[in-house]
Design brief:
By secondary structure, this protein is α+β, with helices and mostly antiparallel strands. It has helices at about 35-45, 95, and strands at about 10-15, 20-25, 30. It has a three-stranded antiparallel β-sheet with strand order 1-2-3. The protein starts with 11 loop residues before the first strand and ends with a helix.
Protein backbone atom coordinates (compact mmCIF):
# COMPACT_ATOMS: atom_id res chain seq x y z
CA UNK A 1 0.00 0.00 0.00
CA UNK A 2 1.26 3.50 -0.80
CA UNK A 3 1.49 6.31 1.75
CA UNK A 4 -1.65 8.49 1.59
CA UNK A 5 0.47 11.60 2.25
CA UNK A 6 3.53 10.99 0.05
CA UNK A 7 1.55 9.13 -2.65
CA UNK A 8 4.54 7.41 -4.27
CA UNK A 9 6.17 5.76 -1.24
CA UNK A 10 5.25 2.26 -0.11
CA UNK A 11 4.35 1.80 3.54
CA UNK A 12 6.53 -0.49 5.66
CA UNK A 13 4.76 -3.02 7.85
CA UNK A 14 6.13 -3.66 11.32
CA UNK A 15 4.80 -5.76 14.17
CA UNK A 16 5.46 -4.48 17.68
CA UNK A 17 4.20 -6.25 20.78
CA UNK A 18 1.56 -8.07 18.73
CA UNK A 19 0.27 -4.90 17.03
CA UNK A 20 0.64 -4.48 13.27
CA UNK A 21 1.77 -0.97 12.33
CA UNK A 22 2.17 0.47 8.83
CA UNK A 23 4.46 3.49 8.62
CA UNK A 24 5.96 5.69 5.94
CA UNK A 25 9.76 5.90 6.05
CA UNK A 26 9.64 9.31 4.33
CA UNK A 27 7.06 11.35 6.29
CA UNK A 28 7.08 8.96 9.31
CA UNK A 29 3.29 8.78 9.27
CA UNK A 30 1.77 5.84 11.12
CA UNK A 31 -1.34 3.90 10.09
CA UNK A 32 -3.11 1.18 12.04
CA UNK A 33 -5.33 -1.60 10.77
CA UNK A 34 -8.87 -2.00 12.06
CA UNK A 35 -8.83 -3.07 15.72
CA UNK A 36 -5.17 -2.18 16.32
CA UNK A 37 -6.03 1.12 18.03
CA UNK A 38 -8.40 -0.77 20.34
CA UNK A 39 -5.52 -3.07 21.33
CA UNK A 40 -3.32 -0.05 22.12
CA UNK A 41 -6.08 1.55 24.23
CA UNK A 42 -6.68 -1.69 26.14
CA UNK A 43 -2.99 -1.98 26.96
CA UNK A 44 -2.73 1.64 28.05
CA UNK A 45 -5.67 1.31 30.45
CA UNK A 46 -5.17 -2.19 31.83
CA UNK A 47 -1.50 -2.88 31.40
CA UNK A 48 0.01 0.40 32.51
CA UNK A 49 2.55 0.03 35.31
CA UNK A 50 1.75 1.72 38.60
CA UNK A 51 3.20 5.22 38.88
CA UNK A 52 6.27 5.67 41.03
CA UNK A 53 5.55 6.92 44.56
CA UNK A 54 5.90 10.64 45.09
CA UNK A 55 9.24 11.66 46.60
CA UNK A 56 9.18 12.51 50.28
CA UNK A 57 9.70 16.17 51.16
CA UNK A 58 12.95 16.85 52.97
CA UNK A 59 13.88 19.96 54.87
CA UNK A 60 16.55 21.92 52.97
CA UNK A 61 20.03 22.02 54.42
CA UNK A 62 20.47 25.42 56.14
CA UNK A 63 24.03 25.68 54.79
CA UNK A 64 22.59 26.20 51.34
CA UNK A 65 20.00 28.86 52.26
CA UNK A 66 22.43 31.79 52.04
CA UNK A 67 24.09 32.65 48.73
CA UNK A 68 27.82 32.24 48.44
CA UNK A 69 29.33 35.77 48.37
CA UNK A 70 31.93 34.65 45.79
CA UNK A 71 29.16 34.30 43.24
CA UNK A 72 27.48 37.63 44.05
CA UNK A 73 30.21 39.69 42.39
CA UNK A 74 29.27 41.67 39.32
CA UNK A 75 30.70 40.29 36.12
CA UNK A 76 31.15 36.78 37.44
CA UNK A 77 30.45 34.37 34.58
CA UNK A 78 29.91 37.44 32.35
CA UNK A 79 26.19 37.37 33.09
CA UNK A 80 25.87 33.73 32.11
CA UNK A 81 24.62 31.20 34.62
CA UNK A 82 25.30 27.53 34.76
CA UNK A 83 23.35 25.58 32.21
CA UNK A 84 22.81 21.92 32.87
CA UNK A 85 21.26 19.54 30.36
CA UNK A 86 17.72 18.42 31.10
CA UNK A 87 17.07 14.78 31.76
CA UNK A 88 15.36 12.97 28.90
CA UNK A 89 11.70 12.40 29.63
CA UNK A 90 10.93 8.75 30.23
CA UNK A 91 8.83 7.32 27.43
CA UNK A 92 5.86 5.10 28.06
CA UNK A 93 4.99 1.98 26.17
CA UNK A 94 3.75 4.06 23.21
CA UNK A 95 7.26 5.41 22.71
CA UNK A 96 8.58 1.88 22.53
CA UNK A 97 5.75 0.85 20.25
CA UNK A 98 6.32 3.62 17.71
CA UNK A 99 10.14 3.78 17.85
CA UNK A 100 11.26 2.78 14.36
CA UNK A 101 14.91 3.86 14.58
Amino acid sequence: MDCPVCRNVSLVMSERQGIEIDYCPTCRGVWLDRGELDKIIERSVGGAPAPAPAPQFRQPDPRYNTPDPRYQQQGHHSGHGHHYPHKKKREGFLGELFDFD
